[in-house]
């Protein structure tokens, strides 16, 4: 009996030793993984050094009602929504640490999107563009992947989503990165990121749990604050905005509303949007909002956002949506 007890004690000690070694090994692995991760300058989210140090990608998304919903949009770290021809808007997603398996529908460029993407020195993914935009891209030697002219093999017509051309042109991040290498584009970008709070922070401001932005009578964007997840769930023209491929809600941790001057420049309704300028805006996060201002000194300069004390704002870590709206557009925050 004593012999059996002795053997059991030895086994128990062995198990404890193995568990202790295993626990230390796991701690070491986790520590090594954390040491190999840094914060994304676009979102403040932690990711591997190899992903954070690569070149950003800017993707043009179709937002025509016949194109909805978009695939892979939930994976962008920053998304811009701009006016295009009345009454529509269009999205540009900025990607760095994520590699969506599907992206689209892809749509065409406008000059003001290019003025914006210059801030990130990205690979630009699009499908054609206005004549002015195409001249702009060539003049500035943008690292361009165009689904209509120079990189058709990186794109495909998605026949599974029930959309008709031109609202069914798709790609994925693997194709984009392969095209980037094939065309000899630089693997890194030269740009400045945002400032982020170290910890999730409730900004000093008024309550803002429901936001409605009326681009025009036929086009609106809304956000409703989810207090549990501490993010804003997005709605487009009254419908919940869902990622078509990942089947998850589109959300924002930060919302920046940037008020700009706009005017039509041709019979097609194409617009001139003054981004190299300054103006007013609103920053929204964690159920609060506050007034801000913005300024952009040159076409390739970074847009700076300041609080009422003149200090550059900090963002909470997570996805940021930047709503570029006309100075006369209606904004309702409750």
TrEMBL record:
InterPro entries: DUF3048_C, DUF3048_N, YerB-like_sf. It holds the Pfam family DUF3048. Residues 43-185, 211-322 form the DUF3048 domain. Signal peptide: none annotated. Gene3D superfamilies: YerB-like. This is DUF3048 domain-containing protein. It comes from Anaerosalibacter bizertensis.
């Amino acid at each position: 009996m004593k012999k059996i007890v002795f053997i059991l004690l030895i086994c128990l000690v062995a198990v404890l030793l193995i568990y202790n070694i295993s626990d230390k090994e796991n701690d070491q692995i986790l520590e090594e993984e954390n040491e190999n991760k840094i914060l994304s300058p676009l979102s403040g989210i932690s990711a591997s050094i190899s992903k954070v140090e690569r070149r950003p990608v800017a993707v043009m998304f179709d937002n025509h009602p016949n194109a909805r919903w978009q695939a892979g949009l939930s994976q962008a770290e920053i998304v811009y929504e701009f006016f295009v021809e009345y009454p529509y808007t269009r999205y540009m997603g900025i990607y760095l640490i994520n590699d969506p398996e599907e992206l689209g529908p892809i749509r065409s460029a406008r000059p003001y999107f290019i003025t914006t993407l210059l801030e990130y020195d990205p690979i630009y993914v699009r499908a054609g563009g206005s004549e002015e935009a195409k001249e702009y891209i060539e003049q500035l030697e943008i690292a361009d992947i165009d689904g209509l002219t120079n990189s058709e093999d990186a794109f495909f017509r998605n026949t599974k989503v029930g959309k008709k051309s031109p609202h069914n042109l798709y790609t994925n991040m693997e194709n984009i990165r392969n095209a980037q290498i094939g065309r000899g584009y630089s693997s890194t970008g030269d740009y400045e990121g945002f400032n982020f709070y170290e910890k999730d922070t409730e900004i000093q401001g008024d309550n803002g749990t429901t936001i409605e932005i009326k681009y025009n009578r036929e086009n609106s964007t809304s956000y409703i604050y989810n207090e549990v997840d501490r993010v804003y769930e997005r709605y487009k023209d009254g419908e919940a905005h869902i990622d078509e491929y990942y089947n998850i809600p589109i959300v924002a941790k930060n919302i920046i509303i940037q008020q700009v001057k706009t005017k039509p420049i041709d019979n097609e309704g194409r617009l001139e949007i003054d981004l190299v300028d300054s103006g007013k805006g609103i920053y929204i996060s964690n159920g609060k909002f506050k007034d801000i201002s913005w300024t952009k000194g040159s076409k390739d300069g970074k847009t700076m956002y300041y609080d009422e004390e003149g200090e550059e704002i900090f963002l909470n870590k997570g996805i940021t949506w930047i709503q570029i709206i006309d100075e006369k557009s209606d904004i309702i925050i409750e």
